[in-house]
Design a protein that fits this description.
polysaccharide binding, 40 strands, 8-stranded parallel barrel, 4 domains, CBM2/CBM3_carb-bd_dom_sf, TIM Barrel, globular, glycosidase, Alpha-L-arabinofuranosidase, Immunoglobulin-like, 10 helices, disordered N terminus, 9-stranded mixed β-sheet
């Protein structure tokens, strides 16, 4: 429940006071025309673990219901690959607390008003055991469990060296896992064809993504998606920043969108015709560093929306109660008990240091509770950004025409005066309702303060503004957003986008906007439900929204975004091959082949390309070329005797480099040879 309290401290005074004048300024822009997707009814999730004897208590139902939990995962991480649902036992002897059986769990799910996502036992189970679970859950008991994962972190089964995930299969390879996923999916859907099946993938930029194991022909994701892609409905990622300071952990969320985009491209490339139907679930995440403090709260507020804005349909926090660990001091001076849960387990350590009493909420609990203050299922997430890396922003438009803006201050020592500007939406002059979770708060505080254009946010805080539209707002409240835009016939210079029509009123035309950060560019308009964009740049990523326009010129809510990458010319006078040979989480090896397909020989050449992500770069190790870099832009010239390129494909110059990566490492979208855009093909 929201508790209205008086907000202490000069940082929360009204605009124009001396305290505000002393705080640094931050500029924030919210563009209501740039839609990032609709919030699903599975968005705000949480892991439950069968070692937690308090999992199914009335207190759990009450607290998780008040937190707005929509999805509950069971039976708990790696336990999923040892858990046998009929007996509530774990292979290998893992502890299962009394009262944590499947039926008791489902009672809690129903009490909270959530949905369940279940880990079917891959490591020590069988497809038949999983199918029997589906039958019991959905046929015998009528629970209607829709989402089923096949295993947990199966790539940790020893195939790549590290061995933490139980897997009794003789072969631990990605091909074995993928073929078994197909068997599981067939058996489980034979019982209930309406269920959704998920397969495990690796997170780009994190081990073992890109690693090609002994005896394999490709890395995990390519192998699993190529084999299981036609049979699955979603993929499963986990996201834990691997850093040892609060500042680094909080900044790591900026890398997540690029990693999700790369997974999306891998799905589209390898999963065949079913690729566009495959969703992404982030079924485990937490700050992994002082997560029971405000550090974890700030991370939680940021990571949920960062994932949802980039196409994830559920984000599931790890976990409800996790138990006490190492005791440290957070940057705001508060105590971290090393507990990865939302709620205290009430433990004490050998030094007689004790956590708060059982079920006391930690900061991430209130951050999770804050999510529903920002956006409810059916609301539209829209683009927002700040000019300060320590202040992150998320925003959502509600069905009532209102706008919510979440401001996250990662600075433990400074308040900021935030100046907000709006594009495609006009706020009223009413004083906003403001929800605040500051350092050390034991509830979300609510007040009326500031204006729609100026707010002061405390250090280490999460602040949500609830704004109402002006009477002259240029937004239609009756027209629905155009539905399900999709790109087709994408070439080097053109692409056709089609969508379902808007309803709720008379539509005069549809406006198609391209996203440029928080700026929108009108690409064109159409009186039908399709539009062909022309004169596009080869090898370039485009993200578009479609909005309906009514007779008064008012715009509807933006459609979900549609993203595509233009190709390279088929009839170019040069050709490039880009082969991502292997990777190891923090680096990769890329081989490049350059061919002159034109009629004129080339003596002396310059190859140029740009990395799509700031998280990748050329290391000092290169071959058969002289590499120079300027930011993400790379220029390669001949080294030694490979200056000559014969006409008509007479020879190919081979070169390459070792790359560094701190996150995603998508391939360059295009290459130019002496200024000409080349036909480019990729292999992995």
């Amino acid at each position: 429940m929201v508790v209205a309290v008086a907000l202490a401290g000069a940082v929360l005074t009204t605009p124009g006071t001396r305290a505000q004048a002393a705080t640094p300024a931050v500029e924030v822009t919210v563009n209501a025309r740039e839609g990032l997707g609709t919030v699903p009814d599975t968005a705000y999730g949480l892991n439950q673990a069968v070692w937690d004897g308090n999992m199914n208590t009335p207190a759990s139902v009450d607290l998780l219901g008040k937190a707005g939990v929509q999805m509950m995962r069971y039976p708990g991480g790696s336990y999923g690959d040892g858990f046998h649902w009929e007996t509530s036992t774990v292979s290998g002897g893992g502890y299962v607390a009394p009262g944590t059986d499947f039926d008791s769990f489902m009672g809690t799910v129903r009490g909270v008003g959530a949905q369940a996502i279940i880990i079917a036992n891959y490591g020590s189970g069988t497809a038949q055991e999983a199918a029997d679970w589906v039958k019991y859950a959905n046929v015998t008991k009528g629970y209607g469990v829709k989402y089923w994962e096949i295993g947990n972190e199966i790539f940790g089964n020893g195939h790549y060296g590290a061995d933490w995930e139980l897997d009794y299969h003789e072969s631990k390879s990605p091909a074995t896992y993928a073929n078994n996923v197909v068997e599981y999916a067939r058996a489980m859907k034979a019982v209930d064809p309406t269920i959704k099946i998920g397969a495990v993938v690796t997170d780009p930029g994190n081990w073992p993504d890109g690693v090609v194991g002994d005896g394999d022909t490709a890395a995990w994701n390519q192998t699993v998606l190529s084999i299981a892609g036609p049979y699955i409905d979603f993929v499963i990622m986990h996201y834990y920043p691997n850093h040892t300071t609060a500042a680094d952990v909080l900044q790591q969320v900026r890398l997540l969108p690029g990693e999700l985009e790369q997974v999306r491209r891998q799905i589209d490339q390898y999963a065949g015709r079913n690729g566009p139907n495959i969703g992404i679930a982030l079924t485990e995440t937490s700050s992994n560093y002082q997560s029971d403090t405000q550090v974890g709260g700030l991370f939680t507020a940021d990571v949920y929306f960062a994932a949802l804005e980039n196409g994830v349909f559920t984000v599931d926090y790890w976990d409800t109660r996790n138990g006490m660990g190492e005791v440290t001091t957070a940057p705001d001076g508060t105590t971290s008990y090393g507990d990865g849960g939302l709620l205290s387990s009430g433990n004490c350590n050998s030094d007689s240091v004790c956590e708060p009493p059982l079920n006391t909420p930690f900061a991430p609990y209130y951050a999770l509770q804050m999510l529903s203050r920002v956006a409810l299922p059916g609301d539209t997430l829209v683009k927002a950004a700040s000019d300060n890396r320590l202040v992150t922003v998320h925003a959502a438009r509600g069905a009532d025409g209102g706008l919510s803006v979440e401001l996250i201050n990662q600075d433990p020592g400074n308040a900021y005066t935030v100046h907000l500007g709006y594009d495609g939406w006009t706020p009223s002059g009413a004083t906003p309702t403001v929800h605040t979770l500051g350092s050390g708060y034991t509830s979300i505080a609510t007040s009326k303060q500031g204006t729609a254009s100026t707010q002061v946010i405390p250090p280490y805080s999460i602040v949500t503004l609830k704004l109402t539209p002006s009477a002259t707002n240029p937004v239609s409240t009756t027209l629905t957003a155009p539905g399900s835009p999709a790109a087709s016939d994408v070439t080097a210079g053109t692409a056709t986008v089609s969508w379902r029509p808007s309803t709720g009123g008379a539509v005069t035309r549809y406006a198609v906007y391209q996203q440029f950060g928080t700026n929108s560019v009108l690409l064109g308009e159409s009186t039908s439900t399709s539009f062909t964009a022309r004169n596009l740049v080869p090898g370039t990523s485009y993200t578009l929204n479609v909005l309906a326009v009514d007779q008064k010129g008012h715009l509807s809510m933006p459609s979900d975004p549609v993203t595509f990458v233009t190709g390279t010319p088929r009839d170019s006078t040069c050709a490039v091959t880009y082969n991502l040979a292997t990777g190891w989480g923090s680096g990769f090896v890329a081989n490049i082949g350059v061919t002159n397909t034109g009629p004129t020989p080339i003596t002396g050449w310059t190859l140029a390309f740009t990395f799509p992500a700031a998280t990748e770069s050329v290391s000092g190790s290169t071959w058969n070329g002289t590499f120079s870099t300027d930011g993400r832009h790379v220029v390669v010239t001949p080294a030694g005797s490979n200056t000559y390129l014969a006409p008509n494909g007479g020879n190919t110059v081979s070169l390459g480099f070792v790359g560094n990566q701190t996150g995603a490492n998508p391939p360059p979208a295009s290459f130019t040879l002496n200024g000409t855009v080349c036909t480019t093909t990729y292999s992995y």
